[in-house]
Amino acid sequence: MREGDYSVWFRTPSGTGTALVAVKNGRISGGDAFIEYEGWYHLDGKNFEAVINTKRHTEGPPTWFGIDEVVIRVSGKSTGRIAAGAGTVDQCPGLPLGVTLMWIENETPERRIDYSRIELHPERLPSPSR
After folding, report:
1. CB 8 within 8 A of CB 100
2. Beta bridge partners of 24
3. Apex CA 107: angle with CA 44 and CA 113, to 5°?
4. What's the CA gap between 82 and 120, in Å, rounded?
5. Are 80 and 49 within 8 A, CB to CB?
6. Which of 19, 42, 59, 127 holds its CA 20 to 30 A away from the CA of 69?
């Protein structure tokens, strides 16, 4: 798992959801339209584990867990661009949770030509025939 931004797909028997998170220096932060996520992660080769705390920031529909503030514990494997694992929710014992993180690659900016630095010589252009 590399540092950067990830799109996250959560799956439970009661529904699925998505979020965006930033993974950097052992910390995870992010959220979705209604819930924010803060926590930590640890890498051991291709294996990872994470603990994430959730908190509601905007009124909206109920979460898949039925409560807004939970502690999610996830462990899994990473291939670099994709990490997948299974998790538990402290406040919902026995609830299966699947998690997939997909790395969001930064787009390389298009190469732009700075025409102000190009010497133009209109006198070299052919003149129209008369």
Report:
1. yes
2. 27
3. 145
4. 49
5. no
6. 42
Dihedral-angle region of residue 72 (phi above 0 means left; psi in -120 to 50 means alpha; beta otherwise) = beta
Radius of gyration of the chain (CA): 24
Q: Amino acid letter at 114?
A: D
Split at pLDDT 50, 70, 90, the class of 130 is low
**Residue that has been written with the tokens 């908190």 in this structure:** 55
pLDDT one-digit tens code per residue, 78-116: 988 899 999 999 999 999 999 999 999 877 777 777 777
Region of 16 on the Ramachandran plot (φ > 0 left; ψ -120 to 50 alpha; else beta): beta
